[in-house]
Every structure is written in structure tokens, then in C-alpha cells.
Specification:
This protein has a single domain, classed as Class I glutamine amidotransferase (GATase) domain (Rossmann fold). The protein contains 6 helices and 14 strands. The longest helix has 13 residues. The protein is globular, with a radius of gyration of 16 Å. The relative contact order is 0.18.
């Protein structure tokens, strides 16, 4: 079994890699950071991190020769498990509205827009309580009220509530985790969320949708 973490110039790769390696200690699994579309095609699981703007991350991903096509083939056609983290989750949307309008992957319907809150700071930065919306393998042994770590100024406004696994309250409703079939994502950083985050990563590595 091989899990690849995509290196496309946008992501906290070292922290994500360390988190995944720690969470996979009891599993017989190869973990590889790569910018190769061929490696993605041979992967059993795919993790897409992301830090920065929606437009820059999408540009970086599509700039890698064959990467968009490899992702469509492996995730959409073959149904391999996928996890997007932070902006990696946001790229699942139809469209990002950060500074300019940018097309996303369009795998989970919705748009990414600026967090609009009164009296609270943006970016939404720090620990927040998860509210689990539905039971799912990704959140085995994770409960409502557990803390996760967030750093973001834009959020995924998901079109279909059935695609929301968890949310948080930050002056309003913010999607914290999404899912559709074999595709999942977390707005929070599991690699920085201590035991809750490591359990979420471990659950993803064990997930057979």
C-alpha cells in the first residue's frame, strides 16, 4: 500500500509528512512525498495539503505536467481515497473567490469565500471545537467538542449539507470537514491538531470507501 503526499509548491509538507508517518506506524504502508503524476497514478491513497491562496494553489497544482489528469484518473475513475487539507480541501470546490475568481477541481459542489464575521479576527486562527455532523470512518474515536487547529481566512461554503462531516462555530457556521464517496477534506490542520488530528489521519489511512 502506498500513500502519496503531493508536493506542488503549496503546503506545509514537512509537518504533513511527519504526521502521516507517525499515524501510519502500525500500518504496512509506504509514505511518499512527490511531484510526479506517475507516482500519483500508482498510489493507493492521495493527500493534498495546501497553504496560501486558492488561486496560487490551483495554479501550482495544474502547472505540474499531467497532475490534473492523474488526479482525475485515480480519484474519480478508480475511486482511490483522497484527503485534502486546508486549501487542499478548498480546491475540491467549484470555485474560489479569493482576490480573483478561480475554478477549482469541482469534486464537491460549492464555493470558497471570505469569512465574514463581526467582532472576531480574520484569519480564523487557533483551536476550535469540532461539531460532528454525521458518523464516518474519518472521525472514528473523534467526538463533538474535540479541539482542532485552524488557520484560514476563507471557507468552503458547501452546496449540499450531506457533504459536510463536521463544522465549527466562528461567528457563524464554517465547514470543518467534507466528504463525497472516496473524497474527503479537512479545513483544520490534522498534522497540527495533536491526538485528534493524528487519529483523523490514521482513520484516513485505514479508510476503504
Amino acid at each position: 500500500m502506498k500513500t502519496v503526499i503531493i508536493n506542488y509548491g503549496s503546503g506545509n509538507l514537512r509537518s504533513v509528512e511527519k504526521g502521516v508517518l507517525f499515524a501510519s506506524q502500525s500500518l504496512n504502508m509506504e509514505i511518499k512525498v512527490t511531484a510526479s503524476s506517475d507516482e500519483v497514478r500508482s498510489a493507493d491513497r492521495i493527500i493534498l495539503p495546501g497553504v496560501g491562496s486558492f488561486a496560487d494553489c490551483m495554479k501550482g497544482l495544474t502547472a505540474i505536467s499531467g497532475m490534473r489528469e492523474a488526479l482525475e484518473e485515480v480519484v474519480i475513475e478508480r475511486g482511490r481515497p483522497f484527503l485534502g487539507i486546508c486549501v487542499g480541501m478548498q480546491l475540491l470546490a467549484d470555485q474560489g473567490l479569493e482576490h480573483v475568481s478561480t475554478k477549482g477541481l469541482g469534486w464537491i459542489s460549492g464555493v470558497v469565500d471570505k469569512i465574514a464575521v463581526d467582532k472576531l479576527k480574520v484569519p480564523h486562527m487557533g483551536w476550535n471545537n469540532l461539531e460532528i455532523a454525521q458518523s464516518h470512518t474519518l472521525f472514528n474515536e473523534v467526538s463533538s467538542g474535540d479541539h482542532a487547529y485552524f488557520v484560514h481566512s476563507y471557507h468552503f461554503k458547501v452546496a449540499n449539507p450531506k457533504n459536510i462531516l463536521a463544522h465549527v462555530d466562528y461567528g457563524g457556521y464554517i465547514a470543518a470537514a467534507v466528504v463525497r464517496d472516496n473524497i474527503s477534506g479537512t479545513q483544520f490542520h490534522p498534522e497540527k491538531s495533536q491526538a485528534v488530528g493524528l487519529k483523523t489521519i490514521e482513520n484516513f489511512l485505514k479508510w476503504f470507501p
